[in-house]
């Protein structure tokens, strides 16, 4: 069975080498230390590390690095910059069906919770168009594909921009209740939320890399 995991916020420079090691071994972009510091020094409360609780292991097995700022003076936007889970600790939920532990999902949820405390309106990120694990993870949390960005990465690959619209807390409760209890025809707030998400979505079939299906935005 999987060990239990605990999560904590970024605490300071001593976390930096661990975060860099996990990210640099897995993400194709060659981030420099200043990029890490840009995020971690300004938004330490949005970045989390995951540790196995009973191993005495000093090294984290998962990290997430984020920011949150106003976009065009209009939207309080959260941004997930980096997410990485040690290979040995991935797909725990898939491997251990009876007691699933979704490590990356838990990291994203921790950051989302912290962003919500800061009044976030939407959360965005980019991922390589063929990163099926990441696309599947974010889509399972309600993110949708908003744009395809040509040759976004230094390795020449395209990216998908994913977005999650976050309703204000009072409306979120109503949307959850509507979704569960009210027939679709009457659930106006939930419907409006779904429509606003659908409006922003591009039309791509799951995991397609067909150039014809690229967004024009
Ligand atoms: C993407 C990544 C963070 C997922 O980590 P993880 O801990 O295995 O993910 P979780 O266990 O939380 O999985 C949550 C959901 O994501 C999806 N998922 C995760 N890995 C998947 C895979 N290899 N194939 C398909 N779906 C996958 C599943 O829907 C899963 O839910 P389920 O188990 O109930 O089906 C990990 O593969 C990783 O670090 N990859 C390299 C770095 C990277 O690509 N980062 C994202 C850049 S934006």
Automatic annotation (TrEMBL):
<protein>
    <recommendedName>
        <fullName>N-acetyltransferase domain-containing protein</fullName>
    </recommendedName>
</protein>
<dbReference type="InterPro" id="IPR016181">
    <property type="entry name" value="Acyl_CoA_acyltransferase"/>
</dbReference>
<dbReference type="GO" id="GO:0031417">
    <property type="term" value="C:NatC complex"/>
</dbReference>
<dbReference type="GO" id="GO:0004596">
    <property type="term" value="F:protein-N-terminal amino-acid acetyltransferase activity"/>
</dbReference>
<feature type="region of interest" description="Disordered">
    <location>
        <begin position="171"/>
        <end position="191"/>
    </location>
</feature>
<dbReference type="InterPro" id="IPR000182">
    <property type="entry name" value="GNAT_dom"/>
</dbReference>
<dbReference type="Pfam" id="PF00583">
    <property type="entry name" value="Acetyltransf_1"/>
</dbReference>
<comment type="similarity">
    <text>Belongs to the acetyltransferase family. MAK3 subfamily.</text>
</comment>
<dbReference type="InterPro" id="IPR044542">
    <property type="entry name" value="NAA30-like"/>
</dbReference>
<keyword id="KW-0012">Acyltransferase</keyword>
<keyword id="KW-0808">Transferase</keyword>
<feature type="domain" description="N-acetyltransferase">
    <location>
        <begin position="5"/>
        <end position="167"/>
    </location>
</feature>
């Amino acid at each position: 069975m999987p060990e239990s995991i605990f999560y904590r916020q970024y605490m300071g420079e001593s976390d930096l080498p661990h975060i860099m090691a996990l990210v640099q071994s897995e993400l194709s972009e060659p981030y420099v230390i200043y990029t890490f510091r840009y995020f971690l020094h300004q938004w330490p409360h949005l970045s989390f590390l995951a540790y196995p609780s009973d191993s005495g292991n000093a090294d984290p097995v998962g990290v997430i690095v984020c920011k949150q700022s106003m976009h065009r003076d209009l939207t309080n936007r959260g941004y997930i910059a980096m997410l990485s889970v040690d290979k040995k600790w991935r797909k725990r939920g898939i491997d251990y069906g009876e007691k699933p532990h979704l490590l990356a999902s838990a990291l994203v949820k921790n950051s989302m919770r912290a962003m919500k405390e800061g009044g976030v309106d939407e959360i965005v990120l980019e991922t390589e168009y063929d990163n099926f694990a990441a696309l599947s993870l974010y889509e399972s949390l309600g993110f949708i594909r908003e744009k395809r960005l040509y040759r976004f990465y230094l390795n020449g690959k395209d990216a998908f921009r994913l977005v999650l619209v976050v309703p204000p807390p009072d409306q979120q409760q109503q949307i959850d209740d509507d979704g569960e209890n009210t027939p679709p025809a009457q659930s106006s707030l939930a419907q409006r939320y779904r429509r606003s998400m659908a409006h922003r979505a591009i039309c791509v079939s799951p995991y397609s890399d067909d150039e014809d299906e690229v967004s024009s935005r």
